[in-house]
Amino acid sequence: MAVEIIYETHSITTDNENGFATGWLPGQLSDVGRKLAQELGQRRRADGIATVFTSDLARAVETAEIAFAGTGIPIRQDPRLRECNYGTFNGMPVSELARIRSQHIHQPFPEGQSYQDVVDQTRDFLTEVARDWDGKKVLLIAHSANRWALAHLLTGVPLEDQVDAPFAWREGWHYTLPTSWTGMDSCSRND
Q1: Which residue in 14, 116, 20, 98 sits closest to 58, CA to CA?
Q2: What's this model's pTM, rounded to 2 decimal places?
Q3: What's CA 146's distance to the chain center, in Å?
Q4: Distance between terminal CA atoms of the chain?
Q5: pLDDT at 183
């Protein structure tokens, strides 16, 4: 069998609107972001979702809480779904961060993480999901680095092809996670 994963980004934050890369800072949804979170809930409430996993950063938690308020669908926070920790660059302008992203695929940001670290955390998370959610549909609400990690692990898209690609928002990304998946059989075993 398999686990069906739907991935959605957290809603728009005040940092997004002002051009800042929040990283491990909490972030706060903007008025537009709160409206989009409500739309996410309307779009996904009847999808047969067994649980919602969200990053424990405030902007992702707020998105999940607004989207699924009153539904009875459990929301589970997991720190392994956090955005990449940009270390001393948390909160810097996105335009500046964009110029150096590709330098930090394997090399951590100063006092932070590398994108490979996010892949490793995501691999650990997915191994647990494959074991515990057989035959279920789960929704993940997280960040850009997590989407790159999912695409890397589950479909083999190299991180190098993702970190500098322009972001194209859409209503969810769908992945199939075989319940036999152990992380060792991922598309990225040569990391």
Answers
A1: 14
A2: 0.92
A3: 4
A4: 26
A5: 76
What phi, psi does 153 have (nearest 5°)? Answer: -70, -40
For residue 53, the one-letter residue type is: F
pLDDT of residue 18 exceeding 60: yes
Q: How far apart are CA 169 and CA 55, in angstroms?
A: 18
pLDDT in tens, 82-123: 999 999 999 999 999 999 999 999 999 999 999 999 999 999
- Domain architecture of the chain: domains with CATH: 2-178 (3.40.50.1240)
Provide DSSP, the chain: -EEEEEEEEPPPBHHHHHTB--TTS---B-HHHHHHHHHHHHHHTTS--SEEEE-SSHHHHHHHHHHHTTS---EEE-GGGPPP--GGGTT-BHHHHHHHGGGGSSSPPTTS--HHHHHHHHHHHHHHHHHH-TT-EEEEEE-HHHHHHHHHHHH---GGGTTTSPP---S-EEEEEETT--STTSTTTT-
